[in-house]
Design goal:
Length: about 325
């Protein structure tokens, strides 16, 4: 299928297909800039000037051999054939995925810095041609990207700061890599005063986690709109400190997943997950909250997964958050 006849229009509030609101398509300012960052090649084809601000497409090129090696390494098996992965395994997969890179862009136009408000993304994988969506194919064709490679294309919108739409005379972009979660050691604690020693892989330093408070709780909140569904409320909460001062970001999570809701009576809709995960964790059950600072002795709090019946023991997991690449600033115009 050819997308030659498709109108390739870029909107401030929109995705690769369509948009919301009544705003007009942005004016394309050709860039055609190549640069290297995070161990791969990047291409910025254009900057789009819209009524509400600017839109930029960032295209990351990945060698086909890297993609095939990744697919060969992470062939699903067992429960994974049905699309289920543990949280820890998913972190490992995301870390290895050549098309998975979390970053925060900042745009500098005429000397003024703009932060992104929202964005979207699409991927093209030559090793899995049947899984490439129409949005990816359209972008590939419009920008004439080489189909022998894999591509990840991010579209970010940067709101303007004044009513007047500035004409871009000089444009640069700064890309900042966000921390990547890396699963660490598992441990068990049960009461205040319990400790766990661990090493941080980046510097080899030994640290000690000390439990300050540890208790079982029942979340008695009634969730609006739960209708005919019953949600788990039993969990553990742990307050702890880490010494010496930890140099980066650290979280503690439960290795188990939260229990799924139970249906009381038939409904026409399905719950997304345990209601309390909106506060305590993600939809698939990883449950932890980090409070307090990074300094020595400052308290942190971690909450376990949610269950219908109290569990006797929680297996906790350290999660380190590593930043693997330095920031880069590239002149586009």
């Amino acid at each position: 299928m050819s997308y030659t006849n498709w109108a390739f229009k870029v909107f401030f509030d929109g995705s690769f297909f369509g948009h919301s609101g009544r705003d007009h398509a942005g004016k394309e300012v050709s860039v055609g800039k190549w640069f290297t960052w995070a161990g791969t090649e990047w291409f910025v084809p254009a900057v789009y000037v819209c009524g509400k601000g600017f839109v930029v497409d960032f295209c990351m090129r990945v060698d086909r051999g890297r993609l095939q090696a990744f697919l060969d390494k992470w062939k699903p098996g067992g429960e994974e054939e049905a699309g289920w992965y543990s949280r820890e395994r998913q972190m490992e997969i995301d870390r290895d995925n050549p098309l998975c890179l979390d970053f925060a862009p900042r745009l500098i136009v005429n000397g003024k810095e703009f932060h992104s408000a929202h964005g979207c993304g699409t991927a093209y994988n030559p090793c899995l041609p049947e899984e490439n969506g129409d949005d990816a194919k359209m972008v590939m064709e419009h920008y004439a990207l080489d189909t022998a490679y894999g591509w990840m294309v991010w579209r970010y919108s940067f709101p303007k700061k004044t009513r007047r739409r500035p004409e871009p005379e000089t444009v640069s972009v700064t890309l900042e890599a966000r921390p990547v979660p890396v699963p660490g050691p598992h441990f068990h604690v049960a009461a205040p005063g319990d400790t766990f020693q661990f090493a941080f892989p980046e510097n080899g330093t030994d640290y000690t986690l000390t439990v300050q408070e540890y208790e079982r709780k029942d979340m008695e909140t009634k969730w609006p709109g739960n209708g005919g569904w019953e949600y788990p409320t039993q969990y553990h909460v742990m307050t702890y400190t880490v010494s010496p001062e930890f140099p980066g970001e650290l979280t503690v999570t439960d290795c188990m997943e939260s229990d799924r809701p139970k249906e009381k009576r038939p409904k026409k809709y399905n719950p997304v997950a345990a209601a309390a995960v909106a506060i305590i964790g993600g939809a698939d059950g990883p449950t932890a909250i980090l409070f307090g600072g990074e300094g020595q002795g400052k308290p942190r709090i971690a909450c376990s997964a949610l269950h219908f019946e109290p569990v006797e023991e929680v297996e906790w997991r350290m999660v380190f958050h590593e930043t693997n690449f330095d920031d880069i600033t590239v002149r586009l115009i």
